[in-house]
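Handout, page 2. Input:
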Amino acid sequence: MIATQRSATTRTFPVGRVRAKPSTTQKTRNFTGSFLVRGLNDDHFQFLELVPVTVQPIDASYVASFRDANIHASGGTFFESIVHVMSMITDVFAFLLENEHHLGPEPKRQLDILKNYVAKMEC
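Output:
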């Protein structure tokens, strides 16, 4: 769920299995701005921290970005873009984790950042 602040009330919108909390820069009218997203329900990964995601409209779609880790994804709607970027975060994390010993400086930096937000669950 994504909670949006509007004066003294809080509104919540379902976003599949994503949960988010707005940051102070969010604009609620057109659903753009910065959000803190709790993560996807996933059998293989656990989100350890809220992920700072920025959503911006681009043409007829939206782009969600986790800028610290340089991960971006688009969607036809605001909600799709968030679901897609959260899915991309777990995909990138899994790939980097599997190839950790062969990473260059930038992928190593990405992995170090992602380790603060995502952990692989033991099955």
